Amino acid sequence: MSRLSGKVALITGGASGMGAATVRRFVAEGAAVVFTDIQVEKGEALAAETGARFIAQDVASESGWRDVMATITDRHGRLDFTMNNAGMLSYQNIEQVELETWHKVLGVNLTGVMLGCRHSIELMRQNSGGSIVNISSIGGFVGLAADAAYTATKGAVRLMTKSIAVHCAREKLNIRCNSLHPGSIDTPILHPATQASPDPEGFRQFLHNMAPMGRMGTGEDIAGTAVFLASDDSSYITGTEILVDGGLLAGTPGF
User: Fold this and answer.
1) Nearest-5° angle of CA 88, CA 22, CA 244?
2) Of 26, 54, 81, 150, which one is the catalytic site residue?
3) Residue 115: which domain range?
4) Residue 212 falls within a domain, yes or no?
5) 52-56, 62-66, 210-214 — which is least confidently predicted?
6) Coil, strand, or helix at residue 236?
């Protein structure tokens, strides 16, 4: 397992869930990994486990992005891959969403991704190019009635990714940018909704049954796709969206 040998990778939201699975997989594939999160204790534990470097970061802060890129430059001198994975849910529909919550979700899910792309491009263009993966969601294709802010950001990430991809291609930067769209993934981000259900086990089974494949995805499912997009095997793929949803959006429910 050395598909990423010699590459330097940055993963935001890397302390748990899909991010942590990707940190582990990228280290196993030979990459030098830097990951960030606001969950300091979990981040430090994962760094001790994997040998990856952890940096505490609020992705909505531009000064934080400057610090992260300065650390990567000082330690590695290059950046080959960025996965903008940090994100949050609000669990508030359009009638419930508070303005403060709206701005916070947009700050993390959209502004944080934009800053990650901009600062990654600045560093990647100094070497031979690179690959950026922005984590969107099936919510980038269909509306999630229970979360207006989350849906808005994930749809925006999908189209912003295309804008970035076309810009980089036309500027001959050799930097690819794609969006990855998970369906129901069995990670801690789903725990609040599960615990709030009057029937937690029934709710989990409902999530498993949503996809035609009959199960929720795992962090490893996302990590494997990210490895492909970081590798040279995907060198002609840019500006596209990849669904990792067990076929959820491929068919009509019940038929």
Assistant:
1) 70
2) 150
3) 8-246
4) yes
5) 210-214
6) coil
